[in-house]
Amino acid sequence: MGLDLRADPIALTAALVDIPSESRHEQRIADEIETALRTQAPWFEVVRNGDAVLARTDLGRPSRVLLAGHTDTVPAADNLPSHIKNGEMWGCGTSDMKSGDAVFLHLAATIAEPSHDITLVMYDCEEIESSANGLGRIERELPDWLKADVAILGEPSGGFIEAGCQGTIRVVVAATGTRAHSARSWLGDNAIHKLGAVLDRLTAYQPRSVDIDGCVYREGLSAVRIDGGIAGNVIPDAASVTVNFRFAPDRSVEAAVAHVHEVFDGLDVDIELTDAAAGALPGLAKPAAAALVAAAGGQVRAKYGWTDVSRFAALGIPAVNYGPGDPNLAHKVDERVEVAQITAVTDMLRRYLT
Ligand SMILES: [Zn+2]
C-alpha cells in the first residue's frame, strides 16, 4: 500500500515519518512520492532527478508558486516509528520537515484547479554538506524548474511566515608581537595583550535591529573562538580572535566586511575574512508574496540562520519558510509537532492556492 496523498495530512505525515530517510538514503521515500504523484495528481508533469521528485502544473495562471520540501532527516535517535500523544506527533522528521512535505503533497493532490500554477520540489540531502544539497543539483541541472513568483519552503516555522534571512561572515582578527622569555618580558611584545582592545570593542558594540517589510532582524557581532600562546614561559608573538557577524539582509557581504573593519579601526591587528554567506531580503512587497502574507493574517517574522530560502533569494525569487512545527525542536530526540498546526497550515495554504 503506497502513500495516500488525499488522506488527512496528519495521517500522511505519519506515513512519511515511518519511511526512514536519513540523508543519502532517500530512494524509497522518493519512489513512493513519485508513484503517488503520478497516480493521484495527474494534472502535474512529474520528473525525477536523483532522489528528488519535481512536479508542476501548466495551467497558464498569471503567477507560479513553488512549494519546496526536503525529504531527508538527520539520523533517527531511536524515535521511529511515529506516535501521537496529547495532540502531538513524535518522531524523527515530524517537524523537520515531513509535516511540511505532507501539507504540500496533500494540497497538490486535492487542488486540481489552483489559482496559481504550482511547482512542487521534494528534494534530497538538505541536512548534510551543502555540496550534496538536492536543491543545488536541481539548480545546476534543471534550472527551469525553479522559476516562480514566490517560493515557500515548508521548514518548521511555528506557523509563522519566516521571511528572508540574515547573512553571516567570519573574520580572524590577528595580533602579532615579538617572542621573548617571560622572565625578561620587556624584551618582547605580547600579542595576546593586544587582543584586549579587540574584546573591549566587541563588549561595547551596540548591534542594530532593522525592520524590513515588517520583519525585524537583530544583528550580532560575537567572538566565537580565541587562539594564542606558546608555552608557560614565553611571551607570545601571535594571537587571534575569530569573530562572527550575523547581519541584516540590507547589508551585502562587502558592506558587512567593511563594517567589521570600521569596528576594529585604529587597532594594531590584521583582519582576514574566512567565511561568508549573503543574507536574503524578505521581498514581501512583491505581489505573489504580499498575497501570501495577507492569507496568513500578517503573521510574519524574520528568519534567523541561513536556510535554502537564500538560494531562491539569490535567483531573485521572494522566498519564505512556512511550515508546522517548532524550529527549536528540529534534530532533537524529542522532536514532535502539534498536529493542530498541520491542519492550520494546510487550511491557510489552501486559501492562498484556491
Ligand atoms: Zn529542515
From TrEMBL:
Q: Tell me the cofactors it needs.
A: Zn(2+)
InterPro entries in the cross-refs: ArgE/DapE_CS (IPR001261), Bact_exopeptidase_dim_dom (IPR036264), Glyco_hydro_18_chit_AS (IPR001579), Peptidase_M20 (IPR002933), Peptidase_M20_dimer (IPR011650), Peptidase_M20A (IPR050072), Succinyl-DAP_deSuclase_DapE (IPR010174)
Q: GO MF terms on file?
A: succinyl-diaminopimelate desuccinylase activity
Q: Which organism is it from?
A: Mycolicibacterium nivoides
A Pfam family that this protein carries is: Peptidase_M20
Question: Which SUPFAM superfamilies would you find in this protein's record?
Answer: Bacterial exopeptidase dimerisation domain, Zn-dependent exopeptidases
**Which residue range or ranges hold the Peptidase M20 dimerisation domain?**
167-265
Q: Which PANTHER family match?
A: ACETYLORNITHINE DEACETYLASE, N-ACETYL-L-CITRULLINE DEACETYLASE
Protein name (database record): Succinyl-diaminopimelate desuccinylase
What does the UniProt keyword field contain?
Hydrolase, Metal-binding, Zinc
User: Which E.C. number(s) belong to this protein?
Assistant: 3.5.1.18
User: What top-tier enzyme class does this entry carry?
Assistant: hydrolase
